[in-house]
Amino acid sequence: MSRRSLLHALAASLLALIPSLSTPTPAPANAEAYIIWPYDGAVIDGGKLWVRMGLKNMGVCPKGIERPNCGHHHLLVDVELPPMDKEIPNDRNHLHYGAGETDARIELPPGKHTLQLLMGDSKHIPFDPPIYSKKITITVR
């Protein structure tokens, strides 16, 4: 292997070790996420409910699929919006719908709860500017 080839291979190896600096995915113009069901102020008997997610002026596609104007839903339960420049957490308060789901069955304990949608790109990072729904409050009894 020539010295030049060796240097190129070494440079490529070193670059692979550095985390890539990616720019945020641009949001489509006038995109809007919203919760279809339940409505704000709804009282739900029992803790199991369907959440129906709506989206205008962009498409829904699974995680890992990089298409312009396309992303997937994340449902935020009883939390504030996460940092907009990092991957959306994946835990019991940040539910990922990376298969492209537009409705989901969730279970919540009795009491008041907040729900909010946040769209993520192919890597679960919010768009720029972020696309999120109005936060709603429901009561489970």
UniProtKB/TrEMBL annotation:
Q: Which domain of life is it from?
A: Bacteria
This protein's species is: Cupriavidus pampae
Q: What protein name is recorded for this chain?
A: DUF4399 domain-containing protein
Q: Residues in domain DUF4399?
A: 51-141
Which interval of the chain is the signal sequence?
1-29
- Pfam families in the record: DUF4399
* InterPro entries xref list: DUF4399 (IPR025512)
Signal recorded as keyword: yes
Per the UniProt record, the lineage of the source organism begins with: Bacteria, Pseudomonadati, Pseudomonadota, Betaproteobacteria, Burkholderiales
Q: Which UniProt keywords apply?
A: Signal
